[in-house]
Design goal:
Blueprint lengths: L1 H24 L20 E4 L4 E4 L4 E6 L2 E5 L17 E3 L8 H7 L17 H4 L7 H17 L6
Antiparallel strand pairs: 1-2, 1-5, 2-3, 3-4
Length: 160
Amino acid sequence: MKKLILIFALFTGSLLCQTTFAQITFRANITTQPMWGPVGYDHVEYYYMPDIDVYYSVPRHKYIYMEDGNWIARSYLPAPHRNYDMYNARKVVINDPKPYLHHADYRSRYSSNEHGNQQSIRDSHEPRYQENRNHPEHSKWKESRRNQGHQNQGNGKRHD
């Protein structure tokens, strides 16, 4: 009986360790999100654009869409949507793995024409978005960081 309790305790402990590890490895990816992405998300795996049935993988920097019956990933939109205005498009954040494999579910869930006003990262004045090197105010952010560094150096204690 003691062995059974010990085995159960070890098994439960290993599950807790795996859960903790998974939570620790979750990282914000604000600096890799595209400038046309909506503000308010520290971590994004995919954007889904229901108006054109296209996904965008943030980590891979690729658009994913159906072509000739297969899901393909490309660094550009399909020809019919090349001039699509990503800044004014409706985007849905999806953090599930490979959402395009469950496309029918996402399509039915987000097919309504509801289009809330989504501010893009490019238009945000929040410093956390300015850290992205593609943000129009990135140089301002870098300068403020540089100034903070100089101020911190000036406040250091002398050691004689």
